[in-house]
Amino acid sequence: MQIDGAVAIVTGAAAGIGAAIARALVAQGARVVVTDLAADRVSAVAAEINETAGGERAVAVAGDASDPELIARTIEIARGEFGPVDLYVANAGTTAGMGLDSDEIAWHTALEVNTLAHVRAAKALVPDWVERGHGYFLSTASAAGLLTQIGSATYSVSKRAAVGFAEWLSVTYGDAGVRVSCLCPMGVDTELLNAGFHSDREGASVAANAVRSAGEVLSPEAVADVVIEAIGDERFLILPHEQVATMYAQKAADPDRWLAGMRRYQRSLMGDQPG
């Protein structure tokens, strides 16, 4: 995809990966609409982008990325300010819930934000992209969507569903000009990860420690650089942590052995060694 001149929407862009991707897209010549629940912070990101770019390259919209009305309004704002949307980065995420004690509200929130927000955005955009013959959907999932997340069932399941939807979208509309990428990082130095160390939710610190100890924790900017390169190559699976590909292959080759290894890893994180 040619980023220069493209119109993009980036959700969950008040900080972290979303803000870094938005900045990187504008640096490559795109114009962006950034959205987030945190109105003041996402407005500050847009203002900072415009100041750096020396012109009106970003617009902020506050709201819930899973809300169909917000999705429709954001698309209309992008069209009115910059033109038809070429790229949608479904990046907003939540760590709501943890294990079997997660209530229905936590499950609902995780699936709404981590999965159904992607589905609703695609429903709003793909028909126009098919008519135009081009469009790009980038789903921020997680290595947890390919592997699993120790400590959090809600995150594992909702991110796995996001990967599955991205695959389906590519299979179904790839021949119609719709390109799809799925971003699956491990540890990234974001508020979502860091909050796990200070949470009193059962399993939250275990989940955060699992991510921290699995490999290098990258900066959001490093992840954004990989994303920009992958969009240019129109690569489906974006793995900023290269070891995820090896882990994914090991899982597919011998699921029982992989699951046993994950159970050993979980015991080590919880301080329980096998007898």
Describe the overall structure.
By secondary structure, the protein is of the alpha/beta class. It has a single domain (7-269), classed as NAD(P)-binding Rossmann-like Domain (Rossmann fold). The chain is built from eleven helices and seven strands. The chain has helices at 16-27, 39-53, 68-81, 104-132, 143-146, 153-173, 191-195, 204-214, 220-233, 243-253, 255-269, and strands spanning 7-11, 31-36, 58-62, 87-90, 135-140, 178-183, 237-238. A seven-stranded parallel beta sheet has the order 3-2-1-4-5-6-7, sandwiched between helices. β2 (31-36), α2 (39-53) and β3 (58-62) form a beta-alpha-beta unit. α1 (16-27) runs parallel beside α2, α1 (16-27) packs across α9 (220-233) and α3 (68-81) runs parallel beside α4. The longest helix is centred in the middle third of the chain and has 29 residues, at 104-132. The model has no long low-confidence stretch (mean pLDDT 91).
